[in-house]
Specification:
42% of the residues lie in helices and 15% in strands. By secondary structure, the protein is α/β, with parallel strands linked by helices. It has two domains: 170 residues, Periplasmic binding protein-like II (D-Maltodextrin-Binding Protein, domain 2, 3-Layer(aba) Sandwich), CATH 3.40.190.10; 153 residues, Periplasmic binding protein-like II (D-Maltodextrin-Binding Protein, domain 2, 3-Layer(aba) Sandwich). Strands 1, 2, 3, 4, 5, 6, 7, 8 and 9 form a nine-stranded mixed sheet that branches. α8 crosses α10. Bound molecules: fe (iii) ion.
């Protein structure tokens, strides 16, 4: 891990501030500091490429999403971080609400990303998308039996559905999207119906739900697409075998489209290298960066005309929900209350 504090270069740059004849790049602390909830190997090569192209050094700290947010709050205006990279619009919204971000995304950057994949007040931008889909056991479920998230409350799915717990942000965001589309009452009824069809008490992560479908403990599961992508493309043969037993079903294709979410990026309120932060965001939205980043994360690029990985291509085209993802954050507290009342543990 690189060092954060560079007293010498800071000193040098402050001297340069009053001595214009000295070539600035020679001594300036030309850097940008990133807090990322993505694993180092899934982003570091891209940041290295940015440094090669721009001469701007990137200092990277990776940790769990909630820990990074807490750290930003604790450090306050003393944080070295210029940028936060994390997943789920619900979390990005939480960071915005907690006052650690600033609305600094330029119009030029906003224009590169579909408007529903960015904060309505300019606090964060989506970098990749993922969908929360239904996966089904190929030998026990016909895709023609599936249709919508709403239909999962049908008694035909009794004791056949696996899904992780309600304290997971991805499920909270899915429920937020249901509230946005059909209101609180219907969503609560839906959540109760879904819980009554659970095959088991929620446990584990999304990969565990896919494994449970493959092992016959349930017939369908609701999971994020990239987890299946990771299992297909990873080195673990057991996971590959499990993944081969399931298929992706895109819900709600005849109405609003499948629920999607993002991994996103934001500039911290205390950023001391805002121009460099904007340059890094611009780089991450370039075509080559988008293709690479989406591919290694088994996700979808946010910019137009960027090629998809073979795995994503194999799942086919789909219609995605056009809901502005800011809503997922705004409705999060309501979603949590509804899941709680529905007995979704
Ligand atoms: Fe995840």
């Amino acid at each position: 891990m690189m060092k954060w504090n560079k007293p010498f270069t800071y000193l040098a740059s402050s001297i340069i501030g009053i001595s214009l004849s000295v070539p600035v790049n020679l001594y300036a602390a030309d850097e940008v500091n990133v807090y990322s909830a993505r694993k180092e190997q899934l982003i570091k090569p891209l940041l290295d490429e940015f440094t090669r192209e721009s001469g701007i050094e990137v200092n990277l700290i990776t940790s769990k999403a909630d820990a990074l947010l807490k750290r930003l709050q604790t450090e306050g205006k003393n944080t070295p971080a210029d940028i936060l990279i994390t997943t789920d619009a619900g979390r990005l919204h939480r960071a915005k609400e907690s006052g650690v971000l600033q609305s600094a995304i330029t119009q030029a950057l906003k224009n590169k990303v579909p408007v529903n994949l960015q904060d309505k007040d300019g606090y964060w931008l989506g970098l990749t998308t993922r969908s929360r889909v239904i996966v089904y056991a190929k030998d026990r479920v016909k895709p023609s039996e599936l249709s919508t998230y709403e239909d999962l409350v049908d008694p035909k799915w009794k004791k056949r559905i696996c899904i992780r717990s309600s304290n997971n942000i991805y499920n909270q965001s899915l429920v937020s999207s249901m509230i946005a589309h059909q209101g609180k009452e219907k969503t609560e009824q839906w959540a109760k119906g879904l819980v009554s069809n659970f095959a088991r008490k929620p446990k584990g992560g999304d990969r565990d739900q896919i494994k449970a479908v493959a092992a016959g403990q349930c017939d369908i599961a609701i999971v994020n697409t990239y987890y299946l992508g990771q299992m297909i493309n990873g080195k673990d043969q057991k996971q590959k075998d499990a993944a081969s037993k399931v298929a992706v079903f895109w819900p709600n294709q005849n109405d609003r489209g499948a629920h999607i979410n993002v991994s996103g990026i934001a500039i911290t309120k205390a950023s001391k290298n805002k121009d460099n932060a904007l340059k890094l965001i611009d780089f991450l939205l370039s075509k080559d960066a988008q293709v690479w980043y989406a591919k290694v994360n088994n996700e979808y690029p946010v910019i137009k005309n960027a090629e998809l990985s073979d795995t994503l291509k194999s799942w086919g085209d789909f219609k995605s929900d056009a809901l502005n993802l800011t809503k997922l954050g705004e409705l999060n507290a309501e979603a949590v209350r509804i899941m709680d009342r529905a007995g979704w543990r």
